[in-house]
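ESCALATION

Customer reports they have been waiting on this structure for their group meeting. Please prioritize. Original submission:
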Amino acid sequence: MVFDPLLPSHRLAWLFARLATPLAAAAFAVFAAWPSPVPAQVANFHPCNSQPSLPICLHGYGRRIAVQRWGALPEPIDPDASAKASLVTSDPAAEIKKLKSATVIVEDVDTSEVLFARKADTVRPIASITKLMTALVVVDADLPMDEMIGIVSADRKLGSDLPSRLPKGTSLSRSDLLHLALTASANTAAHALARSYPGGIEAFVQAMNTTAQALGMTDSNFADPTGLSNQNVSTAKDLVKLIEAASERPLIHEFSTDTKHKAAGRTFRNTNMLVGRPHWDILISKTGTTRKAGDCLVMLIQLDGRKLAIVLLDGQGMNAARFGDAVRVRRIVSSEMAVDATQAMR
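Update from on-call: job pushed to the front of the queue and completed.
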């Protein structure tokens, strides 16, 4: 049988033959470019196990982001951060050697006595510790705390690796936003607070720096209300002044030390695992974490009748090392206070 492309019965076959090769080539190209599925993961899968030099793996913050993205099991917690960790020591020198934070200070805010310090004058990025200053500006502005503020796109597009838990269009009171910024370190909430400030973000940041100057924070600078900018910098000594000022505002004390807060149909938990734990009397609390700032933690605690400001910056190491450091510095200063008390009795 002779193939005749002009016959209707043969035309479809002819067209298919002409198109088959290009169609196949196109289909192959699309298939080759299509993203390959994520390979099956073993229980402890983590990209940093095989490629520790990846930028995302060089710091605890990046490793936690990787855990979230790839579904790995969380890293083991620092033993000293556990609820069962002892709060006393017979070897303070050993505790000092175990500290993971590059900058540390423990200061009695009533007497200004420094009980322990390490690189307390070093200027460093402070990540979300910034939100303590954000809260101070909001509270001192005396704006109506029951005013409703809607979440907009600009509040969510902040360059954070962690997704916002506040959807666009959510409407919350200024009080709720402040609560979330302090308890759960919500970047979206902090940005919304600054955006709704008279004059907007620019005026708010200016107020942050003006407040810092008024507090004598001479080595500090603020560039945004969330702490995501690495231009938010300070020293441990300056942050003691911020902690002390924050402690004089009852709302900041209340919100920063709540174990959790419900808003927008969700429960937001405190980012400081020591808050609410027995044997810890915490008056002010704030955590912070970025790749450049490291893991940060500031607290004002009541210990043996003294109010002690604790500042831990640029912490490195295993999961919850900053909270382990808080336990370690408490052991250190408790032993020093015990020695001082013994000598005073002689």
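Sent to customer with the following note: The chain has two domains: 42-75, 79-345.
Escalation resolved.
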